[in-house]
Amino acid sequence: MTKQYDVVILGGGVAGGSLAHSLRRQHKTVAVVEDNLFGGTCPNRGCDPKKILLSGLEITQVVNDMQGNGISGSVSVNWPDLMRHKRQYTNPISDATNNGLISDGVDTYHEHAQFNSDGLLTAGNQSLSGDQYVIATGQRPRILDIPGSQFFKTSTDFLNLDDLPNDVTFVGGGYIGFELAGIARAAGATVHLIHHNDRPLKQFDQQLVHE
């Protein structure tokens, strides 16, 4: 049996979720289909977990900068403990986001979706029809198709490493690469960074980059 909605949203991230809540305030019938984590990239595998890991970098920097100025002794990052701390924040997010949508009257489907030749959308075994469809699937990191790619990890993988390798190479000279490289270095890894531009962080003020 096909379920009919005013709007069917593909993607349960920040954009899709915010739209769903807004549409419910207009008394629209709404379905949200998500095949990964509700809440999307930022809270689950992007900005927020990265900031938690960065806190380790920031604390070690402050302690090192204050040596001889009222602070003595050293600190180090315990990667498994830091990762456990991060997961205490990130693990509940998907279920909490999903429950928030449901409590607002949104039908959610934790399934992979595809459009069929008859114009209907299939989410798992359920057929859905919408007066309007919104694609809010976001983006995901892509592994480069080059020799050795089987050894590559994405930023998502890095933010969920159980153990940090002793030696890490980052491909990309943008701010994400630098942030993750800083985290790895603060945690004690030897870090290399490869970029293809004539200088890293090309979009930033170069005086600040050099400093």
UniProtKB/TrEMBL annotation:
The UniProt entry, under Pfam families, shows:
Pyr_redox_2 (PF07992)
One annotated GO molecular function: oxidoreductase activity
Give residue ranges for domain FAD/NAD(P)-binding: 5-208
Family annotation (InterPro entries): FAD/NAD-bd_sf, FAD/NAD-binding_dom
Write the protein's name: FAD/NAD(P)-binding domain-containing protein
| Organism of provenance | Lentilactobacillus buchneri DSM 20057
